[in-house]
Amino acid sequence: MRHFGHLAEDVRGRLFLEQPRPFTARSEPAVLATALGGTLYSPATRPALAADIRKQAARGVVSMVLCLEDAIADHEVGAGERNLVEQLNDLVKDFTDSTQDHPLLFIRVRSAAQIPDLARRLGPAVDLLSGFVLPKFTPGNGPGYLAALAAAEAATGRRLYAMPVLESPELAHLETRREQLYGIAELLAGHRERVLAVRLGVTDLCSAYGLRRSPDLTAYDVALVAGVIGDVVNVLGRADGTGHTVTGPVWEYFPMQERMFKPQLRRTPFAASGGTALATGEEVRRRIIEHDLDGLIREVELDRANGLLGKTCIHPSHVPAVHALSVVTHEEYCDAQDILRVDRGGGGVLRSAYTNKMNEARPHRAWAERVLLRAEVFGVARADVSFAELLAACLCG
């Protein structure tokens, strides 16, 4: 797999100073956690699930979750399991006979018992799986989930990762949040090698209070949600070796709706880009606004500022925007390299290569290391390439 591998070589050469590097499902966990990018969720009941996975892989999706939980009705679980087993067994033949890599695939279950049962029923198709998504994860149900995952690993001989979803009412409620987070942190610390990323279920957190944000607002505009995100990162996202990758919440909107506020996407970056061979900057801006992606773009930027990486996506149109915004800018790359170079020399402070900020080696070291890991996975944009041009290539390429 390779981010932006679906783009033509000449397009990548024009966009990237350092191109994204290939990775596989057996790459190091830190690489895979960074590479998740926009993780596309799909109901396990879709009749053309195998075809959907092939199509999305060809369009640049590198991680997908096949959902047996909230995405389907209670009475559909049995049919969803059967469809999942059948579709993945069809898919495994396709990828066995080709040089194309399949996306990182995860199954979102409803109960711990489903994990070893599905691993057994999948047979050879279990080789397509990278792991399981564990919904409504708490210190109470977590041990059962992780024991079931360990049993599935032992039975299949395959490394299977856990992606717990933090979305329980106990996490939303102030009086139980601290106990929940400390309990989850202690539990995950004992299974570090098995936990690929921690996901945030903001929709469920909002439901505990009857809330739903509009497409004109981000998760960070909802004070209750912003508080939970901050506390999750505080406890589970630390850069001292004890933390985990925490992924951004889902963006719920994709059809064009009547807008209450003006679009949040400024014209300047698109006008400055001068357009591309695929589309003008203004045309890309128009398409983004029509698909309600301007709010998503703002939220991804806020995710990054608040320590989150990657995002849950429920529509294919969201994935290109997440990936384009994950590319390391030339300025970030220069800063990160300078910081690590100075740190190796004993620390200190220097003016950035762009002469617009202070780079202090030791306080910024963890940030710089994360930037260079993201650069390995998503690449580094050329100095004259804006996010508008990256989006244009992703949307139109």
From TrEMBL:
GO molecular function: catalytic activity; magnesium ion binding
Cofactor field: Mg(2+)
Pfam families according to UniProt: C-C_Bond_Lyase
Gene3D superfamilies: Phosphoenolpyruvate-binding domains (3.20.20.60)
Superkingdom in the source lineage: Bacteria
InterPro entries: C-C_Bond_Lyase-like, Pyrv/PenolPyrv_kinase-like_dom, Pyrv_kinase-like_dom_sf
Keywords: Magnesium, Metal-binding
Signal peptide per UniProt: none
A Gene Ontology biological process term: oxaloacetate metabolic process
Alphabetical list of SUPFAM superfamilies matching this protein: Phosphoenolpyruvate/pyruvate domain
The protein's name: ATP/GTP-binding protein
Origin species: Streptomyces rubellomurinus (strain ATCC 31215)
